[in-house]
Amino acid sequence: MNNFPNIIPVFPLSNFIIFPNTTVPLNIFEPRYLDMINDSMKSNKLIGMIQPKNSKDENGIPKLHNVGCLGKIISFRETEDGRYLIELKGKIRFQILNEISTDKKYRSVEVDYKNYSNDLNDENNRLNFSDLELIFKDLKSLFEKRGFIINWKALEKQSLDETINALAMASPFSLEEKQILLEAKNLDIRKDKIAEILKTYIFDNYENTTLQ
At what angle do helices 175-183 and 187-207 cross, to 10 degrees? Predict the structure, then answer.
């Protein structure tokens, strides 16, 4: 499958997801992840982004969710104080088969891509932007309450998958909710999952009178 590696280094980052064909900036400063980026730049420039779970194993190491997204470093810059500023472009989602023991400070896993092979295809989706706007019409207030101002005119210029994925990545959702969006098989399911999650937030706001 496009010769993606079966063993990849992973960067566990809470409340952070990327999708295929989306690009995100990352500020790398921890020594182990500086090592990971160095090694990646010398090879295929590929790293896996994965969310850690809230639970830990018997050694106190955070457990990982089963599904993440492989990304390719498309921009790299080193700052004067030794940080790396990179841009990572999502390629394909993966499922973790098991964790690999190495002599590296960062974590590596064996992965399988077959459940997400459609990530490599352009999604021919029949959704209209007007349908998307209708779904979120009464739910924009949540983003505004949390400081997320949605510029629908700007979003309308993007493709539907870019719009939906941007909302998913920038949302004030929980780790678990973002993981649900990441694991959604296709764009249509992801759109419906966002709507479902947003409805629960709006419902809570009406039911909980202590919210300001």
Answer: 160
